[in-house]
Each structure stands twice: as C-alpha cells, then as structure tokens.
Design goal:
Elements: E1 2-4, H1 9-14, H2 21-30, H3 34-40, E2 43-45, H4 65-82, E3 86-89, H5 92-99, E4 112-114, E5 117-119, H6 135-154
Parallel strand pairs: 1-2, 1-3, 3-5
Antiparallel strand pairs: 4-5
C-alpha cells in the first residue's frame, strides 16, 4: 500500500492515483512501469479530495488538520481491511500521520514496523519539494529505495 498526502488535480480527472509528474517520478524511482506499479500497490491518500493549489502557487495546498481528521476513517479502515504487508508513506505528511515520524532526514532510508506490516517511508516526488536538492538527501532516497526493493523481493 502506498499512502500519499492527497489526490492532485490530474488524479481527479483521470480517476486514478499518481497520474501526474509526481507519479511518473515515483514509478521511475521504483523502476516500475504503470501496469506493474498499479498491480503491485494499492494507493490511498491521507485525504480523498484535491485540496487545491498552494497560495504560493508552488505545488498543491497541504490538507489541513481538519481535512485529514475527516478522512482518517478511510485510511484506518483500508489498513484494517486490506492488512497490507508493506506500507509506503510518501512524503512528510503521510509519514507523520501514518508512523508518527518527523522530520524527513531522520527516517528516510529506514524500515519500521506498523502492526504486522513493514513500513518504508519515501520523500514526496513532487517537484515542489526542495528536500532532494541536497546530495545527502538523495543518498537517503537511494537507501530507502534499496530497503523498499528488499521488502518487495521478500514479498
């Protein structure tokens, strides 16, 4: 299961998660084409509606705590119903709410237990994030992807 922060504008139109640039980047990181990506991962998000553009004009607006709380039921229900063996929170918002982790630099590249599942958080692949501009953070991403590949191979 991949847990994102919220659908983007394109996802609402396409009615499929991870359809935009961030999705293409995520699939490239995972070395999966579209068919393999969707066959491998059930995709959910912290909120179920596109929150709109950020007031700064750079990327999408982060969902508010109230919006996240209103949608929390769905994520908890899907986790209980599907009981995934692997959970991949994508971005700081998902990692904070799914695993209680912050900040990114302290946990990207690590593996965590989430009930009976293994969780491997990734940074958000959005071009709006500057986190990957630092070479040490790109090294953390490489480490996280190696851990994720190990888990996928194990499953």
């Amino acid at each position: 299961m991949i847990v994102g922060q919220s659908p983007g504008a394109l996802e609402g139109v396409a009615r499929r998660p991870w359809r935009g640039r961030a999705g293409r980047t995520l699939r490239r990181w995972l070395a999966l084409d579209e068919d393999a990506f969707y066959a491998t991962f059930y995709c959910v998000s912290m909120t179920r509606c596109y929150p709109g553009k950020s007031p700064s004009g750079r990327g999408d607006r982060l969902p508010t705590p109230r919006e996240i709380a209103l949608c929390r039921f769905w994520l908890e229900w899907e986790l209980r119903l599907l009981r995934p063996a692997l959970v991949v929170p994508v971005g700081g918002l998902a990692a904070r709410h799914v695993l209680g982790l912050a900040p990114l630099g302290e946990f990207i590249g690590s593996r965590f237990e989430l009930g009976d599942a293994v969780a491997v958080p990734l940074p958000h692949p959005s071009g709006a994030s500057g986190w990957l501009n630092e070479s040490s953070n790109r090294d953390r991403l490489d480490q996280a992807l190696a851990v994720l590949r190990e888990e996928l191979d194990r499953l």
